[in-house]
Amino acid sequence: MKFIVIWLLLLAYAVFLAPGSEGSDPVMEQVFSGNLDAIDPLVLTVFNSLGIFPLVFLTILLRNDRQKWPAWPFSLAAFAGGAFALLPWFAFGDRPKERVLRTPRWILRILRSKVWLIFLLVFTFGNLLTLLQGVSLSGYSEAFMESSLVSVMTVDWFILWWLSVYAVHRFYPDAKRKGLAWIPIAGPVLVLFFYHKE
Q: What residue ranges are annotated as transmembrane (predicted)?
């Protein structure tokens, strides 16, 4: 029930409440024109991280895809829809195990490999290098108020962060380093990296 409530609130925020200019979205214009240098570094880092989060969910959910609904369509849809795509699966699809693992073995070998996890960590930390150009909370705040894209993606980011922590605790309750999951994006990957039960 909580996932549906959050999903509905997120939809309501995106449609009715998100601040932003009434005309064209300034940040979205820069993204579509490829003029990324004109985007605030913190805004760009958060934007890029929304493409990394789905890789983390793809890794966690496909390693544990035994639930009522297959996880892979929702994990793939998260690349375009973020939490909008994942919340319905957590609400309705994440039911007690009903079948053997759906994920093909060759994909499992990749997702369970240390090489894949290291790739995710390098990708995550590489994204943070954008912040070396400077971090301006006032600049981000200004973009948040002027761009509906930034305002919605910020809320989406925090929900994805919470969902990633929930997913780690849901599927790896016996992991000794679950507290690492609270580190945004990299944390769940580190939990899997140090998890040896499999």
A: 42-62, 74-92, 115-137, 149-167, 179-195
pLDDT value at position 197? Answer: 61
Q: Residue ranges of the domains in the chain?
A: 2-193
- For residue 9, what pLDDT is reported? 96
**Residue 93: predicted pLDDT:** 81
* Mean pLDDT, rounded, for 141-155: 93
Q: Tell me the C-alpha distance between 91 and 79, whole Å.
A: 19
Angle, CA 63 vertex, CA 60 and CA 64 arms, to 5°: 90
Q: For residue 156, give the nearest of 22, 29, 49, 70 by alpha carbon.
A: 49
Q: Helix count (H) and strand count (E) of the chain?
A: 10, 0
Compute the distance between CA of residue 145 and CA of residue 20 in angstroms, rounded to an integer.
5
Locate the DSSP E strands across the chain.
none
Nearest 5°: the CA angle 57, 89, 110 is: 30
Calpha distance 188→178 (Å, rounded): 8
Distance, C-alpha 114 to centroid of its chain: 20
